[in-house]
UniProtKB/TrEMBL annotation:
One GO process term, biological-process aspect: lipid oxidation
Metal-binding in keyword set: yes
Protein name (database record): Lipoxygenase domain-containing protein
UniProt keyword terms in alphabetical order: Dioxygenase, Metal-binding, Oxidoreductase
Pfam families documented for this protein: Lipoxygenase
Domain Lipoxygenase: 1-196
Keyword field contains Oxidoreductase: yes
Molecular function GO labels: metal ion binding; oxidoreductase activity, acting on single donors with incorporation of molecular oxygen, incorporation of two atoms of oxygen
């Protein structure tokens, strides 16, 4: 919730800076086009998903959802893939036997069900690739090109970065109490967007 709240506050500041009232949301052609494309190709025209935005508050919630999904949610399911799947019994990518039909399963049955060594190594390679930080990694909250071109963004970005730093400290403090630190939602390890 901390990261969601930080994104929500950031988006709120930006929306209220650029859209002085709800009518500005309704007449923004680029925003309409973006929402339309996401509705068609992201939400696949599901009837309970928004097709348009009418108010600043709707825009704030919508943009927060998109930013959270493309940063924090993606990091939570992507960044730990190698940690989880490198040990094949944690999450085998294939099974060589049908699922058991009763609870009495032998160790031999389990071992025979697991993939062979080549499949295991290939799965580990894929998980390592997906978990690896890209060369052009940009952490959540870093927007160097925006700050250079639009002075109005400096304040909201600086406050967002400050909130993210507070979250980092909280995570780091909590991690000192654990045998294994939880790094997947550490803001400094989270991409600004999905880069796979």
């Amino acid at each position: 919730m901390d990261i969601w709240d930080a994104i929500y506050k950031f988006v709120s500041e930006v929306v209220y800076e650029y859209y002085t009232d709800d009518s500005k949301i309704q007449t923004d052609k680029e925003l309409k086009h973006l929402v339309s494309k996401i509705y068609d190709y992201g939400f696949l025209q599901k009837p309970d998903c928004p097709q348009t935005l009418k108010t600043r508050e709707e825009a704030i919630k919508y943009i927060t959802m998109i930013m959270f999904t493309c940063s924090a949610q993606h990091a939570s399911v992507n960044n730990g893939q190698y940690d989880i799947y490198a040990w094949m019994p944690n999450g085998p990518t294939t099974m060589q036997s049908p699922p058991p039909v009763d609870k009495e399963v032998t160790e031999q049955y389990i071992m025979e069900s697991l993939p062979d060594i080549n499949t295991t190594l290939e799965s580990m390679r894929v998980a390592a690739f997906l978990s690896h930080r890209s060369k052009d990694f940009v952490p959540l909250g870093k927007y160097p090109e925006v700050v250079a071109f639009d002075k109005r963004m400096r304040g909201p970005i600086e406050r967002f970065q400050k909130r993210l730093k507070e979250i980092e400290k909280k995570i780091e403090k909590r991690s000192t109490l654990k045998d294994f630190p939880y790094e997947y939602l550490h803001p400094a390890h989270m991409e600004n967007s999905i880069t796979i």
